[in-house]
Request: fold
Amino acid sequence: MSENLKHWAVVPDAIWNGTTVTKGKALIIEGERIVELVDSRSVGKMRSVNLPDCTLIPGLIDAHVHLSNWMMPGFLAAGVTTVRDTGNNLEWVLNARERTRKNPLAGPTIKCCGPVLDGRTTNWPKISRQNNDCNQVIRSVEELVSAGVDAIKLYVNLDKDQMDAAITTAHNLDKFVLAHLGGVNAIDASKIKVDEIEHLTGCVHHEHGGESPFVDPEYLSACIDSFLENQTIMCPTLMVWDRLCRINESVLINDNRLRWVHPQVRSAWARFPHRYLDPEVRLKRQQSLITMKRAVYEMWRRGCEIITGTDTPWPYVIPGFGLHDELALIVDSGIAPIEALKMATSRAAAALGLTGEVGVIAPGAIADLVGIGGDPTEDILHLSNVQFVCHRGEVVLGDQLVGLRDAEFAIDPQDAITEMILGVADTKQLPKSPPVIFTDES
Ligand SMILES: [Zn+2]
Reply:
């Protein structure tokens, strides 16, 4: 199919609408929306895409990324049709949001925070705003909201009063607030009504300086009490710790999905300083990862709201496909595949203010759809078998994506995020010729 069909049908083997799986149904799509679910035998001669071996699921949502242009084809190839950028150059990300809004083939639908709001010091100056006091952080929130951001991201060096001021200001302006916590613990952040916490910060890394995070069961339980009372969402990004632990594993370095990663970034990942840490630190982190999986399971068991994000482009977190891996880690913690999938669809949509629009297959919703060979509601690893992607009613073709990707890879990325990754890789004098890790399509 080479054109955008105005009125057409998708006929899969099964549909997971975000809640239940049904067989024998087809979707009718008009423009960018789903208009009807019908009996598949009634499609008749209407123009249709037949997916006889596929389960059709809502387009996936990655709620924690930092975007660059080179990532866009990878997200779509993996069936990730919505992302939330949680820290970037303001002007760049607003432009990117506009570009994919106008052209669904240019990349996923973007929600964005602009730069992260940090305290007196900033960890990532290229994507941060420094705030020395409460008045300054209030002004920063007001300026970002009037510039058009979708949410506010708070960062590690803010103190509790500054966070409180930022959250109150953002909520008065009807904006959602997420935080990567540093000095403020998760219970306090939850009590001052932060909407979402990233990376399990403030509840598992609350001592030990983050070097080997651990869980104090009593403290975790108190965090969960507070999250339930204040409806605080958790976006655990297990991928960050998984990759830190496993950064020297040959299976990561030889992953053929690295063909969706810009060659310069691939090379930077291969010489990332974390590869050369004291092995003892890495082993401790491997133990920590098990602890974190247990914490995620405990939060889920007790009814906390959990959504999925990846922190792409953290080393070996491949755009789009990293979300498949995050879901596999969630399932590995003991949570059923169908519950994990909700974290990347309807639950993430709610956190992004998109309930009913995306993350669901229903009449009136946006036609963001992924056809998966097999059934990911039974086996989450089936997600790797993406057979069909539709973003806002436009069918995304594989060779189109390869063309867009190759065009991006032919130029040197100049954006803030890629510069940061290349910069971290070059902080140490390390071997200059990393192994050839991937060269072409298999
Ligand atoms: Zn991040």
User: Anything to note?
Assistant: The chain has 15 helices and 18 strands. Residues 64, 66, 86-87, 311 surround zinc ion (CB under 6 Å). The first strand starts at residue 7 and ends at 16. Confidence is low (pLDDT under 50) at residues 1-5, 433-440.
